[in-house]
Amino acid sequence: MKKVEPAKKSLNVKHAIRDLVPIAEEVEASGKEVLYLNIGDPIVYDFRTPEHLWEAMNSNRRKCEGYANAIGAASTRQAVADYAKSMGANGVTKNDAIIFVGGSEAIILSLQALMNQGENILVPRPGYSVYNGELTFLECKHNEYDLNEENKWMADIDSMRKQINAKTRGIVIINPNNPTGSVLTRKNLQGIIDLAGEHDLPVFSDETYDKITYDDAEFISAASVAKDVPLISLGSISKTYLAPGFRGGWLYKQDPSNALDDYFAALHRLCRLRLTNVAPTQPTIEAALNGPQDHIKEMVTKLQKRRDLTYKRLNEIEGIYCDKPRGAFYAFPKIEFPVESDREFVLDLLREKGVLVVYGSGFGQKEGTKHFRVVFLPPEEILNSAFDKIEELIKEKYLK
């Protein structure tokens, strides 16, 4: 039988976070231990899903044995609507919410329902690579606007303005940001919303890490600012509620002028095409949003110590500069020593020292700069070991 050729549009799809894992497995197979600082999965380390989410799933087993509503159970969508209101959204009802199989599916289907071949949408650089990967598959462009490293990774409004053209369909915000750990100020967020309103564009605000902030950083939901601009807000239970394996995500719309009605109908059609939601996940989302929130303070307290260690250790390494993360659980240090590419550095670090991080070019970065992303979820002893190895490699290979 002749070889089956894949779809041409699939060939350039990349996801830097996952694409490095097979190489790490080869390194492990050679007998070298690998320290994984690449994937934002709290459960790999010393975090556990809150027990009340398991209780919600187990106590609803009988109800969850059949197909689920394709757009999500009414009670689950109501929980998201109530959550939206608590975050400052106005006029959101259960009919404005849709439940997805994790936050990534919410991203993928929200883009599929919006984009036509050759069109573009603004995404931040650095930003989450699923957006770029899906846009590549859709044969659309990701018009990247810069985040300003010299200003706590705030969005560069002038850079954003230059990326808007006749084929632009919307603006994506990731706040708190993956991979930089930045948290947008109200002034910066207002500037983005005003620009979207000026150009009659909807805003897609990815707020996956909304409860994970440090020091005096304040998370401000885009819905609380976007009074007249149509907004889609995305979230999930994967990070804040420590349940990545449960695959619970959502989006809701705030749409005072009904500009998103046809778009939302298209989203419904795509959801029906995949037939069902994950039935056991519906009650767990409700339990997460409506139930005890005690674990969040404990989680953030633990993470802040690891953030402090990461910030200190990285900035003590010659040739590395790292802005202090104010949210999420990522740092995005800048490489200031001579190296051909950040991908080359990351592969050297993996193969020679057994430390897996992700190269900055996989997230997008300002031209002429080089970075890598560190996940600071692991316990302090693992982080210290990893930072020791990073420092060793830089001294041995790059600062001779």
**Shape by Cα distribution:** globular
> Structural class of the secondary elements?
alpha/beta
Secondary-structure element order, N to C: HHEHHEHEHEEHEHEEEHHHEEEHEEEH
In the CATH scheme, what's the topology name of the largest domain?
A: Aspartate Aminotransferase, domain 2
Q: Say how many strands there are.
A: 15
Radius of gyration: 21 Å
CATH architecture of the largest domain, by name, is 3-Layer(aba) Sandwich
Number of helices: 13
Sheet with most strands: 8 strands, mixed
Give helix % range. Answer: 25-40%
Strand content: 15-25%
CATH class of the largest domain: Alpha Beta
CATH superfamily assignment of the largest domain? Type I PLP-dependent aspartate aminotransferase-like (Major domain)
Main sheet strand line-up: 2-9-8-7-6-3-4-5
Poorly predicted regions? none
Output mean pLDDT.
Answer: 96
N- and C-termini, Cα separation? 55 Å
**What quaternary form is this?**
single chain
